[in-house]
């Protein structure tokens, strides 16, 4: 079970972390404490010995050029009501380092394997920043892995694919960054290493996401943070126009980074959109499917160090 796979010492501020598997690669994943505690509760099991039954399709958060550490506010905001999983992609955070840095398609392939190896597909996939590029590639090349798609502050528009312009946009975003995020960014940079970090950024800048958007079949929500200077308003509108089944919303008073207050309002938008898809499912069928997903995923987790 999920509870037995993560050590108590790995709990910090309402979030548990541990390693799961994607083939021979260890993938570190963060889950909300509410999900783990629910899996430990006796009422989560039935007479057949099956695992806890979830009441919705899993939500998988895909981070940007940092790791799932930066998504902790959103994990907590969503995790009280929905099953949420936030993996560190290979080469980022605490997951294993691949032999060579992966490009956007390589990261999407790795995410697909992780989803299917842990019986979490199809999932509601939420891409944040550069994670949107990974999520789009996943939805286009592996549509069976994605139920619904959410793109929050999707990068990079064609006019912003130079280091100079990117640096200028980042500087405009700095005043709205939460100071508490600085240690997280530094920690992730150290984990990945300077060389891998630069390679990952170049791979993201070289990804022509606009060529893929028209092939996204999943219902999609595009979220434009109102005060996001890294992602122009015109670009998010273009993203929305290119995706066949898409809707665009603006998240007021929000910047590119996800602060706790932003996470609370963003979670409301996400749950409203994702609930539309759950209404179409047969309750009994969905409960059986979710029970299998939790049981399979939980047994694969290895405890994180204290």
Description of the structure:
The radius of gyration is 18 Å and the shape is globular. The protein contains 11 helices and 9 strands. Helix 3 crosses helix 10 (about 260-280) and helix 4 (about 105-115) crosses helix 5 (about 130-140). With about 300 residues, it is of the alpha/beta class. A 9-stranded mixed beta sheet has the order 8-7-6-5-3-4-2-1-9, with helices on both faces. It has helices at about 1-5, 35-40, 70-80, 105-115, 130-140, 165-175, 180-190, 195-205, 235-240, 260-280, 285-300, and strands spanning about 15-20, 25-30, 60, 85, 125-130, 145-150, 220-225, 245-250, 300-305. Helix content is about 40%, strand content about 15%. The chain starts with a helix and ends with a strand. Strand 3 (about 60), helix 3 and strand 4 (about 85) form a beta-alpha-beta unit. The protein has a single domain (about 50-290), classed as Alpha/Beta hydrolase fold, catalytic domain (Rossmann fold, 3-Layer(aba) Sandwich), CATH 3.40.50.1820.
């Amino acid at each position: 079970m999920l509870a037995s796979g993560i050590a108590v010492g790995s709990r910090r501020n309402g979030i548990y972390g541990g390693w799961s598997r994607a083939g021979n690669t260890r993938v570190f994943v963060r889950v909300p404490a509410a999900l783990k505690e629910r899996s430990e509760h006796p009422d989560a099991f039935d007479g057949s010995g099956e695992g806890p039954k979830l009441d919705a399709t899993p939500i998988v958060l895909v981070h940007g050029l940092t790791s799932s550490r930066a998504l902790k506010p959103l994990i907590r905001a969503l995790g009280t009501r929905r099953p949420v999983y936030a993996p560190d992609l290979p080469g980022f955070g605490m997951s294993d380092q691949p032999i060579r840095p992966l490009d956007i398609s390589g990261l999407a392939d790795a995410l697909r394997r992780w989803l299917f190896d842990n019986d979490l597909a199809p999932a509601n996939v939420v891409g944040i920043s550069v994670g949107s590029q990974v999520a789009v590639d996943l939805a286009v090349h592996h549509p069976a892995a994605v139920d619904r798609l959410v793109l929050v502050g999707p990068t990079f528009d064609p006019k912003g694919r130079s280091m100079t312009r990117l640096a200028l946009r980042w500087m405009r975003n700095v005043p709205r960054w939460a100071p508490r995020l600085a240690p997280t960014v530094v920690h992730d940079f150290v984990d990945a290493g300077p060389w891998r970090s630069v390679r990952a950024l170049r791979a993201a800048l070289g990804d022509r996401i606009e060529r893929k958007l028209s092939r996204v079949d999943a219902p999609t929500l595009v979220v434009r943070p109102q005060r996001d200077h890294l992602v122009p308003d015109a670009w998010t509108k273009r993203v929305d126009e290119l995706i066949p089944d898409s809707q665009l919303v603006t998240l007021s008073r929000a910047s590119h980074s996800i602060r706790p207050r932003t996470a609370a309002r963003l979670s409301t938008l996400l749950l409203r959109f994702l609930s539309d898809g759950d209404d179409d499912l047969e309750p009994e069928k969905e409960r059986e499917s979710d029970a299998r997903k939790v049981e399979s995923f939980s047994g694969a987790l290895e405890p994180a160090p204290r």
